[in-house]
């Protein structure tokens, strides 16, 4: 098939629905901007689905904002959140009555079923018990990744979902990003022939690493989950999903090299606010990052109407982990991690997760028998070996308002839109990231971590 005919016949497969995308905006020679039209399997729903959010932090807010923006599709009717500031803010935004505001997930699930769905966006180590209890109560679930911290718990949730017939959508939001949907579609259409190998790179970005995996909630793998699951189960998942192959073997290496006490500069202190002599020159200064740049300060729970925001931030830095020296935390997450994977049909893949970059957004190279693809989430470039021409595909998508740097390529709300339709119609086939589909990449992550610790090549058995 020549390129002109390829472009004319392109379509996107999302779940069981085929979405035509034969209209492209041409922006230059062999360069096109594309969008994903509405899924034809989506139909008007008679009333919004109702949901209760367990965990009103970053991810709970992202999914909740969908309901606030599209009240005709979803309504948040309850929240469980132990931090009063977050509970108050979430309840106010969604007009949640006092009777439906709770401190813990146990408070919610001790009551009779009171909504269609539960959104689980709590810390990783608190996914399993509420998910199992919610399934037993008859709720459908929107489950933030990772599914659970252990292989057994993941399999338990899968088994109970099947037994109860409930929908469990795992938040592998990259499957819904137009960029990756287009990549998968082109491969399915044979645009590069047979897939031979993949190189996939996740640049975390150095201040994001310091924020989330050195100082932040995921700094200690024993208390949460290993970074390969906490951060990169997205990437393991998107590789297998795009090429539609089964993972067979995996081997991994990586370690914590830089963020440890041996590398603490002379003159540094336990906190950036404690008279550190190198704070002004340190690239990981909490004062510069949070108080001066205003980066990622949502985690500090600063009221919008505070008189002096900078002063309030610095006060938070004096007592929270976010003000501690990155070299003196009790962190253990690797700051560089590589895996090699053998997929079925002799397809191989290399994945690299790196903390020390000045940029984010995934980079991917896919090598095929008749062409290759190179992309960085802002554009996907397809090279045709036969014609020696290249075509650029530029996705028309933005991250959720207020979360422009999520690195999810617009997939967050597209996932929720499909979840709403799936729950309203009780049809899990409207989703591409049900637990049945998503569990394999978690098993890849568990095996990668075992390989990293033992030095052995591990088999992946679904």
Automatic annotation (TrEMBL):
Any GO molecular function: nucleotide binding
Database matches in InterPro entries: Gfo/Idh/MocA-like_OxRdtase_C (IPR004104), Gfo/Idh/MocA-like_OxRdtase_N (IPR000683), Gfo/Idh/MocA_Oxidoreductases (IPR051450), NAD(P)-bd_dom_sf (IPR036291)
Residue ranges occupied by any Gfo/Idh/MocA-like oxidoreductase C-terminal domain in the UniProt entry: 184-459
Gfo/Idh/MocA-like oxidoreductase N-terminal domain location: 54-171
Leader sequence residues: none
Superkingdom per UniProt: Bacteria
Gene3D superfamilies with a match to the protein in the record: Dihydrodipicolinate Reductase, domain 2, NAD(P)-binding Rossmann-like Domain
PANTHER family xref list: BILIVERDIN REDUCTASE A, BINDING ROSSMANN FOLD OXIDOREDUCTASE, PUTATIVE (AFU_ORTHOLOGUE AFUA_4G00560)-RELATED
Protein name: Oxidoreductase
Organism: Pedobacter yonginense
Taxonomic classification: Bacteria, Pseudomonadati, Bacteroidota, Sphingobacteriia, Sphingobacteriales
């Amino acid at each position: 098939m020549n390129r002109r005919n390829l472009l004319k016949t392109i379509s996107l497969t999302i779940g069981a629905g085929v979405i035509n995308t034969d209209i492209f905006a041409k922006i230059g020679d062999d360069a096109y901007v594309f969008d994903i039209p509405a899924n034809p399997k989506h139909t008007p729903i008679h009333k919004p689905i109702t949901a209760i959010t367990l965990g009103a932090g970053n991810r709970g807010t992202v999914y909740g904002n969908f309901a606030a923006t599209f009240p005709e599709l979803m309504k948040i009717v309850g929240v469980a959140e132990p931090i009063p500031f977050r509970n108050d803010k979430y309840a106010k935004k969604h007009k949640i009555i006092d009777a439906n505001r709770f401190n813990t997930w146990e408070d919610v699930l001790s009551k009779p079923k009171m909504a269609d769905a539960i959104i689980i966006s709590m810390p990783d180590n608190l996914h399993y018990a509420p998910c199992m209890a919610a399934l037993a109560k008859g709720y459908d679930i929107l489950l933030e990744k990772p599914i659970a911290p252990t292989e057994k718990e993941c399999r338990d949730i899968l088994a109970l979902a099947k037994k109860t017939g409930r929908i469990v959508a795992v938040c592998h939001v990259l499957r819904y990003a137009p960029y990756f949907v287009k990549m998968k579609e082109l491969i399915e259409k044979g645009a590069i022939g047979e897939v031979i190998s993949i190189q996939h790179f996740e640049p975390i970005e150095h201040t994001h690493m310091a924020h989330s995996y050195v100082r932040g909630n995921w700094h200690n793998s024993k208390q949460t989950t290993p970074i390969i699951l906490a951060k990169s189960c997205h990437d393991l998942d998107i590789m297998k999903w795009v090429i539609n192959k089964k993972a067979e073997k995996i081997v991994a290496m990586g370690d914590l090299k830089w963020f440890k006490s041996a590398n603490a500069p002379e003159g540094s202190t336990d906190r950036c606010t404690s008279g550190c002599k190198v704070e002004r020159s340190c690239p990981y200064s909490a004062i510069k990052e949070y108080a001066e740049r205003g980066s990622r300060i949502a985690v500090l729970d600063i009221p919008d109407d505070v008189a002096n925001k900078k002063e309030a931030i610095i006060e938070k830095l004096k007592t929270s982990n976010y003000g501690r020296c990155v070299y003196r935390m009790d962190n253990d997450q690797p700051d560089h991690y590589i895996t090699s994977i053998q997929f079925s049909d002799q397809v191989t893949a290399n994945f690299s997760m790196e903390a020390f970059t000045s940029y984010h957004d995934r980079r991917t190279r896919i090598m095929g028998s008749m062409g290759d693809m190179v992309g960085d989430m802002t554009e996907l470039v397809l090279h045709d070996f036969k014609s020696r021409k290249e075509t650029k595909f530029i996705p028309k998508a933005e991250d959720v308002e207020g979360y422009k740097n999520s690195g999810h390529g617009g997939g967050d709300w597209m996932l929720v839109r499909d979840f709403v339709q799936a729950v309203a119609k009780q049809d899990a086939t409207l989703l591409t990231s049900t637990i049945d589909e998503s569990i394999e990449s978690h098993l890849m992550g568990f095996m990668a971590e075992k390989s990293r610790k033992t030095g052995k090549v591990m088999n992946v058995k679904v």
